Structure formats: structure tokens, C-alpha cells
Amino acid sequence: MEQFIVSARKYRPQTFKDVVGQQTITNTLINAIENNHLAQALLFTGPRGVGKTTCARILARKINQVGYDDPTEDFAFNVFELDAASNNSVDDIRNLIDQVRIPPQTGIYKVYIIDEVHMLSSAAFNAFLKTLEEPPKHAIFILATTEKHKIIPTILSRCQIFDFKRITVNDAKEHLKEVAVSQNITFEEDALQIIAQKADGAMRDALSIFDRVVSFCGNHLTRQAVAENLNVLDYDYYLKVTDLIITNDIPNLLLAFDDILAKGFDAHHFVSGLASHFRNLLVCQNPQTLNLLEVSDENKNLFYVQSQKLSQSQLIEAIDLSNNCELKYKTSMNQRLLVELCLMQLATITHPEKKNLNLN
Description:
Blueprint: H1 7-10, H2 23-34, E1 41-45, H3 52-65, E2 79-83, H4 90-100, E3 110-115, H5 122-133, E4 139-145, H6 153-156, E5 160-163, H7 169-182, E6 186-187, H8 189-199, H9 203-217, E7 220-221, H10 223-230, H11 235-246, H12 250-262, H13 267-283, H14 300-307, H15 312-329, H16 335-347
Parallel strand pairs: 1-4, 1-5, 2-3, 3-4, 6-7
Helix pairs in contact: 4-5, 7-8, 8-9, 8-10, 9-10, 11-12, 12-16, 13-15, 15-16
């Protein structure tokens, strides 16, 4: 049986053009290489799974390809990767400094990629300072970290810093489309939308989740199957709950919440999603903010139709009630009652006799 390669590895970008959602950084690096303005100490910082190590590897290969005859050469012997999470002692850094003095046998540069650099000990950082400030001409250091604030200022001041951003839901979804097409997998737009939202800005997480749902769904990804596998409440639930809120139907609203709990969903997650749903309704009322709506183009009309049933002030009040419930949830002694009270208060927002009610 052929060994399975996870998508995060199989589709790891090999050129800067393939990197998802970091065009500003990749363009800067390409221009720096072409104009010979590349610093010898770079710091890549940002959330997990957004392309820091990938860009470091592409950069290491690209700077050595200048003027080289064989475009397939990966210069593996010129690239040294150190995981600072497990090699964080001063001795590890001293060994690295000893290697730096030796020039490369092929290519132009030796590139040292130090991942999770914030894990280095204080002694290791201090041992590294002089070499980082004045490295040999053939050496380039690329430091990568998810926690820039843990790196001492004397290291930061010696590096050119690149801040990687979270991958947008739309960018992640478009990349997942390409992956799905390459694997002959059919899909519903909303299925990929759910995966992209679940990944929370990390492309690596999105690809890992994609592999998981493909194992569950087979060669056709549906919104319902993906939502079930990832145990997420999709927009259908929130549209139905909001319809009950608009019609002030408290009994069926409480039954709907009970059904959500019976299906194993977390009440805290439900309240958080409800606040996001009201926010989506608010942004789709105005054409200027419509692009902030985090749903697929196919379903924007569903949100638009529902948003017209509520005024802007009612939606703001609904967001405020949901958000307050979410904030109080962890400290509440009776969490179910707290959410039910929130739902009952929400159901009074559109009540014709709201002025005479004293439930808020």
C-alpha cells in the first residue's frame, strides 16, 4: 500500500508565488534578492501555520540559485535547520557558531533556520549576539517564532523583522479549492467555508482538517457532513433560532436550544456563534460592509433577507445581550439557565409591547 502523505506536506509551497496570503512579505523578499538588499539576519514572526518556515526554506533555496546552472538543485547541504524548542542550550548555539565559519562547498550562502527561536535560553541568546550582528559574508540567519515578545530586544534590533499575518477565510478557501480539484474531490462551497473558518487563520490547520473530512466524507464534501464531522453549528441553526427570536416564540426557542444541547454541542460555543450571527446580519444590511460577511456568496441572500426583519438598533442590542451572556458563561453557577435567559431576552427585542416589559 502506497504511503499517505498529509496535504500540509504534499502541498507545501515550493516557490514564493505558491505561498498563500503573504504577498506583501513574499514580494519584499523577491525584490530584496533581485536588488541584492537582503539582510543577513531575518526574523519571521506570526501565528502558527501561516508559512514562516516554508518561506525560510524557499528563500534559502532561491538565494543560492542565482547564477547556478541546475534549477532543480535544492542546496540541501547549504541549509541547516535548528529546532530551538529542543536545542536551546548555550552549547547548541556554540556548535552552530563553529559551523558558521566554514564556507559552503556549493552555492553562495549557508542558511541557518532557527525555528521557535523564543525558546532559546538567556545564555544561548547572549552567545548568539555577536555572530548575529556580524556574520560571515556566506552566512544568513532566519529566525522564526510565534512569540516575538519573548525575544530579547538586543536580538530584535539585529534582525530585519517580517510580521506574517493570519490567513483570511477567503484565501484559505480558495487554496482548499485548488487542493480538492487536484485530488478529484467534488465539494460544496459551504463545506470549504466551514473548514477555512475552523482553521482560524492557519493554512496548515486548514489542510489537516481537510484531510480529516475527506476521510469521513469520501470524494464529495457536503456542508452537512463537514459540519457533523467537525462538530460545528453551521448557519442553518442560527437562521432558525433567529427566526424564532423575531417571532417572539419563546417555547420553541427553548426547545431548539435543548435540541442543540442534545446533539452534543457546547452551549458556550452556541452563544459565541449567535453573537457572530447577529454581527453578520448587521454587516450585510449595508452594501459598504457586505464584504465583511463571512459566508459563501451562494448564501449571502439568506442573511440579507433575515437582516431586513430587524432594525440596526435591534441587532446591536442582540449582539450586546449575546456577548454579555458569553462573558458571564464561565463564572455562572447555572450555565444552561443563563443561556435560556439570554434567549428569552433576545425574543423580547422585537416584541410589540417591549416598552412595557421589564426583562432586561
